[in-house]
Amino acid sequence: QVQLVESGGGSVQAGGSLRLSCAASGYTYSSDYMGWFRQAPGMEREGVGVIYRGGGNTFYADYVKGRCTISQDNAKNTVYLQMNSLKPEDTAMYYCAVGDRYSLLPKRYNYWGQGTQVTVSS
Predict the structure, then answer these.
(1) Which parts of the chain have pLDDT scores under 50?
(2) Alpha carbons 105 and 107: distance in angstroms, whole number
(3) CA Rg value for the chain
(4) Structure confidence at residue 29 (pLDDT)
(5) What is the pLDDT of residue 90?
(6) Which has the closest alpha carbon to 53: 97, 3, 92?
(7) Rounded-to-integer distance, Cα 53 and Cα 114, Å
(8) Quick one: pLDDT at residue 65?
């Protein structure tokens, strides 16, 4: 059974940084894609970025380019989302997910974490 355990969320002031973690188990990460998504109240879930576990390739949504970096630690089977220069509009529940497509579309992902809240104050 796939399990995704997230951590690192919290409250920060605008301009601050956070690093979210997603510890994965129960699947073969070497050929999987790990996506980071966010969902603000009243909004649809949207992709932040994705990493190909097999090679570490990444791409990001336009609105976060230059502010976010996804990385992985295969020894720990953990994927990270480093977020810098946070803005109040980044406030959302952040999720990690596993799928078999190199995509930012939520529908391409099969397994989801529980979500971790990120709140950015002015």
Answers:
(1) none
(2) 5
(3) 13
(4) 56
(5) 96
(6) 97
(7) 20
(8) 75
